[in-house]
Amino acid sequence: MHIFELVLNFSPAFHRHCTIRIEGMENGVAKFEASPTGLLPGVELAFSVNATHIALLHGACTSMLSAWDERWERLGLDGICIAGMFDSTTSMSRSFSLWSPRHGSVPHAMLAAVFDCFPVDQCDGIAGKLLDEIRSYFGARPPATVINKHPMRIRLAPWLHPKDAKEIEGIVRNLPKDGILLVDASGVERFGVALTRILPITQLLQRDEEVRWLVPDDMADALVQSGIKRSAIEVILPIPISSRGEPIVLGGVCVPLGMIPLAQTGNKKELVRAFRNELPLTIEQAATAATELMEIVACFQVAK
Question: Does 299 or 108 have the greater pLDDT score?
């Protein structure tokens, strides 16, 4: 049995920095964590990993490093940089850097083996949502996952596209006809009306048993307009920030309160420009601050 440690530090352009650490042994351990930032708490997930997954991951890592191509580390725009370290009993410790590995590439196969160590149906809470966003970015997540709990749940991926409609329709068609079904859109990025164009609404309305919905507040009206009873919809409201919690601090710098309405518009380019006008920041620092502030206002309702 090969014993190894794999550490991956993810630096997304639009989400929080986070780390995956996997210890490979007969009974492996996989950890996902993000440090506290701004008003966002630190989060962590941990799972045991069976020997089969550990062996597959070890093989994927060694295959990637033995076939190393410098083009894999070339930086681009609006992607994810991955700083990695692989240490194994069969080889010397090796550091590497990847930029947004493409589907079908050797690095992408390594990432797929990494994400297989984190069961989608067990990744809950804030940490699970953040991991889901990273996993979905790399296409290592189906558009919908069926979770056999009570009630049965179909959890939608963070990033959906109209091209996913056919696959989701097939998943819904194959669900057991009896029993309550919960459609969990809690982690979906804001799509509004578009969500009703991706899901097989008519098919869901024709189910014998009740269908319940868990959605962000800005998706509820579109579902009601599609014929879904408002009583069947549970809305996820932003967690309010007390005015006592302001000003927001990012990297030891107090964020001017005028930045908050701009962050709420979602215009990152203008927010970066505003940060640079207000504070002595580099473009990279301003982009990081803008990303974190946009995530904060998306997760919390700032008190007026």
Answer: 108
Place of tokens 């994927």: 60
pLDDT digit string, tens, across residues 46-104: 999 999 999 999 999 999 999 999 999 988 777 899 999 999 988 789 999 999 999 99
In this structure, are residues 303 and 243 in contact, taking their beta carbons and an 8 Å threshold? yes
Distance between CA atoms of residues 296 and 266, nearest Å? 12
Pairing state between β 152-156 and 181-184 = parallel
Strands (DSSP E) found in the chain: 4-12, 18-24, 28-34, 43-49, 80-88, 91-99, 144-147, 152-156, 181-184, 211-216, 233-236, 239-241, 249-250, 253-254, 300-302
Please check whether residue 257 is in contact with residue 246, taking contact to mean a CB–CB distance below 8 angstroms.
yes
Paired tokens of 91: 């080889």
Antiparallel, parallel or unpaired: β 91-99 and 18-24: unpaired
Domain boundaries, the chain: 4-137, 144-236, 240-302
d(CA 6, CA 13): 22
**Which comes out higher in pLDDT, residue 2 or 89?**
89
> Whole-model pTM?
0.74
Distance CA 17, CA 214 (A): 27
189, β-bridge pairs: none
DSSP label at residue 116: T
pLDDT tens for 181-204 read 999 998 887 655 578 889 999 999
Please give the pLDDT value at position 125: 81
Residue 79 carries which DSSP code?
Answer: S
Comparing CA positions, the residue from 32, 31, 22 lying closest to residue 2 is 22
